[in-house]
Design a protein that fits this description.
Blueprint (H helix, E strand, L loop, with lengths): L2 E6 L3 H16 L3 E2 L8 E6 L6 H15 L4 E6 H5 L1 H5 L6 E3 L7 H4 L10 E3 L12 E2 L6 E5 L1 E2 L10 H5 L3 E2 L2 H13 L4 E5 L8 E2 L2 E2 L3 H8 L7 E4 L9 H9 L6 E7 L3 H6 L6 H14 L4 E8 L6 H12 L5 E6 L17 H26 L3 E6 L7 E5 L5 E5 L8 E9 L5 E5 L8
Parallel strand pairs: 1-2, 1-3, 3-4, 4-5, 5-6, 8-11, 11-14, 15-16, 16-17, 20-22
Antiparallel strand pairs: 7-8, 9-10, 12-13, 18-19, 18-21, 19-20, 21-22
Helix pairs in contact: 7-8, 9-11
The structure holds iron/sulfur cluster (SF4).
Length: about 450
């Protein structure tokens, strides 16, 4: 039996796809092993958004060769689609597969026999027009379920549409079927994942279903107690969806909404499809219906043309928003996008300084959000990671709660009262009811 090992860089979508490719190998009789277990085949799933994608890819290939010098090394993923030739020139790489080919990997690389030259099979991105269903099985508690792929937007900093192609989706029927399969395996929480998740429902360029319809159908799936929406563009987060989440017992009061900038001038340069007023409106609608809702925000700082005043406008805008945490990214140039040619380049030093300022703001926001929840009752779904005799889990509204490890609690939901924040900035809790709620 041949052994195969995987390495994933990047986002949740990549993790769900690696997991699916792994299951395909297992169905064909391969044994899935750890990276260091001398596999016969390595599959490295790359990312184009990560900084130094090339350097990271080289490093992983080198490590792979160290652990299994004769292994067949295959590179897939966004970076493989964008730079197939460069990747094929990395010493040790045997095959590079693009977005349209990665799910046929086992068939295409029949037998995984090394050739004189690396095999490069990366069609034009326009060929990547079919949707391939994927979900991850990292642990027993939570699964990332891909419902949508690709993006039809053209944000001026983003290379994802070039790496993943046009927006396309699974059907509601298929997503519900996957959710039922996941429920049967005992997983309690599903995170709906996509490149532009809110754009769900396009089939061959035509809108046949909507994200709102999808959440309504998923809400009826028995056996899954928790759904989260991984990230949704503010212009696609309609009041219908917000109201539905507010009234659902299964969709958690937690949104992650990319803002990117709090300056309308920069939002326009970024080619985002909303202005800051719309964003503020979404946040206030959510909070008026769900005062305890957790809201995460993505922000890019140091975009070309962002002056100190523009940055402060972003800082003050976010400071005034009732949001719970930020993911901050210093702007980084990507080939074949519009932004690098725009005037007003911001120095790396300023990009990092601005990012540090927002990260400090994020800590403050998070602490404030946690403090608002002290004394309140929630349900915590405990996970199976144990560290220093402690385990962790999340409340409905994404407060991370720490507790003394108890094997009985793994993958169980417990009714607790939040008591206070410890030195590690984690929430502590006490039991609200004696019994463990077995959902
Ligand atoms: S919405 Fe913009 S940032 Fe997001 S994937 Fe599409 S182009 Fe990239």
């Amino acid at each position: 039996m041949k052994k195969v090992a995987f390495y994933t860089l990047g986002c949740k979508l990549n993790y769900s796809e690696t997991s699916t490719i792994g299951r395909m190998f297992q169905e064909r009789g391969f044994e899935k092993v750890e990276f260091t277990d001398k596999p016969d085949i390595y599959v490295i799933n790359t990312c184009s958004v990560t900084d130094n994608a090339d350097k990271k890819c080289r490093k992983i290939v080198k490590e792979a060769q160290k652990h299994s010098p004769d292994a067949f090394i295959t590179i897939v993923g966004c970076y493989a689609q964008l730079k197939p030739k460069e990747i094929s020139e990395i010493p040790g790489v045997d095959a590079v597969l693009g977005a349209a080919e990665k799910f046929q990997l086992v068939d295409i690389l029949d037998g995984f026999v090394k050739q004189d030259k690396p095999q490069v099979l990366a069609s034009a991105i326009s060929e990547a027009n079919t949707f391939h269903n994927s979900y991850s099985f990292g642990d027993r508690t939570r699964t990332f379920l891909k419902v949508q792929d690709g993006c039809d937007y053209s944000c001026s900093f983003c290379t994802i549409p070039l790496a993943r192609g046009n927006s396309r989706s699974d059907t509601i029927e298929n997503v519900v079927r996957s959710a039922n399969e996941i429920a049967e395996s005992g997983v309690k929480e599903i995170v709906l994942t996509g490149v532009n998740t809110g754009d769900f429902g396009l089939q061959e360029g035509k809108r046949v279903e909507t994200f709102y319809q999808l959440v309504q159908e998923l809400d009826k799936v028995e056996g899954i107690n928790r759904f989260r929406i991984s990230s949704i563009e503010p212009n696609l987060l309609s009041n219908d969806i917000i109201e539905f989440v507010a009234n659902s017992n299964k969709f958690m009061p937690h949104f992650h909404i990319p803002l990117q900038s709090g300056s309308n001038k920069i939002l326009k340069l970024m080619r985002r499809r909303y202005l800051r007023e719309l964003y503020a409106d979404r946040v206030s609608t959510i909070k008026s219906l769900m005062p305890h809702c957790c809201i995460g925000v993505d922000v890019i700082v140091g975009f070309p043309g962002e002056t100190e005043e523009d940055f402060l406008e972003t800082y003050n805008f976010i400071n005034g928003l009732d949001v719970s945490y930020l993911h901050v990214f210093p702007y980084s140039e990507r080939e074949n996008t519009l932004a690098p040619d725009m005037p007003g380049k911001v120095s790396i030093k300023d990009r990092n300084r601005r990012a540090d300022m927002l990260r400090i703001l994020s800590e403050k926001k998070k602490r404030h959000f946690y403090e608002q929840n002290i004394g309140k009752e929630f349900h915590v779904l405990f996970e199976d990671d144990v560290k220093d005799g402690l385990m962790e889990g999340f409340t409905e509204n994404y407060v991370r709660v720490v507790a003394k490890y108890d094997p009985v609690l793994v993958n169980e939901t417990k009714h607790v009262r939040l008591t206070g924040i410890n030195k590690e900035s984690l929430m502590e809790a006490e039991e609200a009811y004696a019994e463990v709620l077995k959902h």
